[in-house]
Specification:
The protein is an all-alpha fold. It is built from 14 helices and no strands. InterPro entries: Protohaem_IX_farnesylTrfase, UbiA_prenyltransferase, UbiA_prenylTrfase_CS, UbiA_sf.
Length: 301
């Protein structure tokens, strides 16, 4: 499905530019970045906090735009992405490239001026990792793309913490590990439902390469170290009992759902089956886990 040749004659609307930033993905990125900032053991001025979170949002949006610029050919081959601005013929690729590059530089420079060098450097690394390592190098080459590439979405808590403190310590590294290990089971649960799209586009996602049953087993396997990372901040005495109770309770529920997924023998995942329930719960899991971190810090400080 070729991209419309008339796209170059169409002006990009504000809605199309906003769509390039992948706002749904950005919301989770911004939230975890904000939680990393609020969990830091320092008082952060509201203006600095707003500027840091804005930079995280802009950086995530820049990475999303560059991802769409590079993957316009893939998006045109998949039903769930065919209506995006580039494959939909509402924008030319050059506009997306300029928008993504400009937003990248602006977010990093603003972070450096508003916060500190370390936060700006980590933000720049996160953008480059998502674009160059995941999008350009991994996604079209290996079924482990989302495993390694998951690091791209794990940087925001590190960035938020660094913006507040100017350094990185054990707790933000564990927050990075939680998201890094959470990404594969979360994404694989979704990819089971759209594997035909990936197959049509030639993307070697795990369900396409290894099959449904293997993907279900991988979801369970990756859930175990994710749970260990989620409980570790409390077990190591870096958080209080509020976070500990939430982490243990949510992780137990996640494990039960992952076991149901692994035990499922249906050839095709069903709309209301365990895979869809796990995917929906995984989003709630991460939001509640990071919210508990902030509540724990402010209630028990």
């Amino acid at each position: 499905m070729p991209i419309s040749q008339d796209a170059a004659n169409l002006p990009a609307t504000s809605r199309d530019l906003f769509a390039l930033t992948k706002p749904r993905v950005m919301s989770l990125v911004v939230f975890t970045g904000l939680c990393g900032l609020l969990a830091a053991p320092v008082h952060v001025h509201p203006v600095l906090a707003f500027a840091a979170v804005l930079c995280i949002a802009l950086g995530a949006g820049a990475a999303g735009a560059l991802n769409m610029w590079y993957e316009a050919d893939l998006d045109a081959k998949m039903k769930r992405t065919a209506s995006r601005p580039l494959p939909g013929g509402r924008m030319d690729r050059q506009t997306a490239l300029h928008f993504g590059v400009g937003l990248s530089f602006f977010s990093v420079i603003l972070m450096d001026l508003a916060a500190n060098h370390l936060a700006a450097i980590i933000l720049a690394v996160s953008i480059l990792f998502y674009v160059l390592v995941y999008t350009v190098w991994l996604k079209r080459r290996t079924a482990q793309n989302i495993v390694i590439g998951g690091a791209a979405g794990a940087f925001p808590p590190l960035i938020g913490w660094a913006a507040a403190t100017g350094d990185v310590s054990t707790l933000p590294v564990l927050l990075f590990a939680i998201i890094f290990l959470w990404t594969p089971p979360h994404f694989w649960a979704l990819s089971l439902f759209v594997r035909s799209d990936y197959a049509a586009a030639g993307v070697p996602m795990l369900p396409v390469v290894a099959g449904v049953q293997s993907t279900r087993r991988h979801i369970l396997v990756y859930t175990l170290p994710m749970i260990a990372a989620a409980v570790a901040p409390w077990a190591l005495g870096l958080t209080g009992w509020i976070y500990g109770a939430v982490a243990v309770g949510l992780s137990a529920a996640f494990l039960i759902l992952a076991l149901y997924v692994s035990a499922n023998r249906a050839t095709e995942p069903k709309e209301m089956g365990p895979e869809k329930r796990l995917f929906a719960f995984s989003i709630l899991y991460l939001f509640c886990l990071f919210a508990a971190l902030v509540v724990d810090k402010w209630m028990l400080a």
